[in-house]
Amino acid sequence: MRVTLRQKNLEITPALRVYIESKLLKSVRRLMKNVMTQSLPILDLEFGRSTRHHRKGRVYHAEANLTLDGTLLRAEVDDEDIRAACDLLAEELEREIVTYKSRARARERRGSRRVKKDLHLDPAARLYRRGRIRNEGN
Q1: For residue 31, what are the CA distances in angstroms to 24, 53, 91?
Q2: For residue 135, is it within any domain?
């Protein structure tokens, strides 16, 4: 996985870099372990302050873009603390990855069900076709 870390109006200290890597990269690698990809996944991370002059409120902005085989998974978070923003970003990105994986798994199962339904040899065993009961009562 290729990782790009950008900063905007913020200095990323070595301690903050270690925190980001421990929170985000480990969870993303764990979730992406079994996903077969044609190309290399690209993770773009951006952390920063929304403005330089504001001191209160949701000042810190965290953003993650994960590109998998042409599919873009995106997560954005604003918070009062950069570490809390990192935690929320990890949760939101994990949710996006799980949704992506479950969508692919459902598509595979749907195809498998269709093949199983079409492979029945006895015509009497195939009562259901496209959601309707066929030859019922005859």
Answers
A1: 11, 38, 12
A2: no
Q: What is the pTM of this model?
A: 0.74
Task: Please choose, from the candidates 47, 29, 42, 53, the residue with its C-alpha nearest in 3D space to the C-alpha of residue 85.
Answer: 47
Question: Can you tell me the distance from the alpha carbon of 72 to that of 66, in angstroms, rounded to the nearest whole number?
Answer: 6
- Number of structural domains found in the chain: 1
How far is it, in rounded angstroms, from Cα 72 to Cα 134? 42
Distance, in Å, from the CA atom of 92 to the CA atom of 85, rounded to the nearest integer, reads: 10
- pLDDT tens-digit readout, 43-89: 999 999 987 766 676 789 999 999 988 889 999 999 999 999 999 99
